[in-house]
Amino acid sequence: MNPIEQVVQQVTLGGAVRENHALEHATIVLLSKRFPEVRLSGISFATGFFVFGDLPTEVIRPMAEQALARLRGGEPEMAIHERCGTNLAVAGMLTGLSAMTVARLRKPYNSFNNIVLATTAAIVVSRPLGLLVQRYITTRTPGEEMKITGVKKMTVLGAPAHFVQTDNQGARLHLMPHAS
Question: What's this model's pTM, rounded to 2 decimal places?
Answer without folding.
Answer: 0.89
